Amino acid sequence: MTASNSTVSPPQRDGGPGGGLGASAARGALVMLTGQGMRVLLQFASLVVLARLLSPHDYGLVAVVVVIIGIGEIFRDFGLSSAAVRAPELSHAQSSNLFWINSGIGLVLGTGLFLLAGPLASAFGQGEVVGIARAMAAVFLLNGLTTQFRALLVRALRFRWLATVDVLAPAAAFIAALAAALFGWGYWALVVQHLTQALVLLLGAALGARMMPGLPRRDVSVRSFLAFGGNLVLTQLVNYATNRLDTAVVGFAHGATPLGLYNRAYQLVVTPLSQVQSPVTSVAVPVLIRLQDDQPRFAAYLARGQLALGYPIALAMVFVAAAAEPIVEIMLGEQWLATVPLLQFFALAGIARNLAFVGYWVYVVRGLSSSLLRFTAATAIVPVAGVLIGARWGVVGVAAGVAIAPWVTWPLSLWWLSRVTAVPVRSLYGGAARIILVSLFAFGAARATITLLPSLPAVGALAVCAAAIAAVLGLLCLHPAIRVDARDLREVAVLVKRRRSA
After folding, report:
1. With contact defined as beta carbons under 8 Å apart, do 273 and 117 qualify?
2. 117: which of 54, 154, 356, 425 is 20 to 30 A away, CA to CA?
């Protein structure tokens, strides 16, 4: 048990680029990305197997509740995990108070979902939603209990433990869901999956944090945490409401089966994307916090972070967009072929969302949650308009609106950020432009190759698509600017490799 007067502070800044901070960043990035890579593979395995045992209707029923839980999860966290991570000092008493706040919010939200299960089912016209909502109400409480344990692990830079837990949880959830599906439980298999994952995440984070929360103390103030978190939660709420309006429109207008198709395509692209961004953020934010008073190094780390995150994600999205048909055929089966155009639009959106993500790091690191809230509110009309206009052309039109919106808001996000704090705008715009250019050439080559070879089996189509992208990358590296980016990425890879063998 941690003493009540102790503090949990971030490690001290290193003396240079190659010192302890760089080593921590490299090791953290390696461990977290390796763990998340395994997690993404597990989720793909879950998609491939469960999509053949369950129907789009089953996924649509659970998606109705997942959307509601997603909104509630923003309130449940209340931005307090980010507030705890960025705090220069965090006492045991403060951490305990934050633990009880998050847990209390989780309990209230879970109770609310349980009580509103009936009206929710009536609104969507699906009676099965009642049982699903009442069972999944427990997710709020489990995640509320987990929040501050995870924050402590991030503050302590215990990335290996986090990565292990983040792999074990979906693995256990997949096994539980598979067993339930094989026993013929239908959509309840997906409910079991969500509950199992939340429970394992709680147990793993609690064991790793090694902190027994004390009783709440009124004489210990957490007002500054709540102020920061309040702005952040409002920002996330606006973001979620505008970015998930599409799901509500599809569900209300078209029913559970089209929603199941839409949700699977969305999850196939966006979930792996977010699960790469989340661990990278867990590494980047603590490192950037220690560099924020050293502007040249801060700018250099930020620009390199954009490249290290941007190129791999953009090329992965290009691969998904170019080879959507064989990907769906292999992973989901023929009953899901209607998701192909949806998958392509979501991949397009994923590139833009990823480019804007480094800006989020700066807002969190420099405590600019109020500025982030103002920007999010000011640009909320863009995704809303995209969905509502696109809805005139059905489910595919909604996906197109979702894809266009981030390409409008991303350039504005960097401009807005540059008005409130010092950021290397020219480097970030330039790096993004090169990532986009490479992505366009890679997509053109990959798509042309698949089009010219229509008789290839699905596995062969994936192989030639990957080969076309690799060939384009080799040719583009002849350009000096792209060659410099490749060298920077190679240096990051070498540093990570050295830290792994050290």
Report:
1. no
2. 54
Residue 473, CA atoms < 13 Å, CB-side half-sphere: 18
Give this prediction's pTM: 0.65
Task: Answer whether residue 1 is part of any domain.
Answer: no
DSSP annotation string for 361-402: HHHHHTT-HHHHHHHHHHHTHHHHHHHHHHGGGHHHHHHHHH
Domain encompassing residue 329 = 20-501
Domain-located, residue 418: yes
| Closest to 409 in 3D by CA, of 431, 385, 390, 393 | 385
Work out how many domains the chain is built from and give that number.
Answer: 1
With bands split at pLDDT 50, 70 and 90, how would you rate the model's confidence at 14? Answer: very low
Crossing angle between the packed helical segments 425-452 and 480-501, to the nearest 10 degrees: 100
Q: How far is CA 56 from CA 62, 261, 338, 434, in A?
A: 10, 6, 11, 38
Nearest CA to 146 out of 102, 84, 197, 195 is that of 102
pLDDT digits (tens, 9 = 90+) for 382-426: 988 998 898 888 889 989 998 999 999 988 988 999 998 988 999
Confirm whether 3 is domain-assigned. Answer: no
DSSP 87: -
**Distance (Å, whole) CA 331 – CA 313:** 20
What pLDDT, on a 0 to 100 scale, did the predictor assign at position 267? 76
Assess if residue 159 is contained within a domain.
Answer: yes
* Residue 88 burial (CB count, 10 A): 8
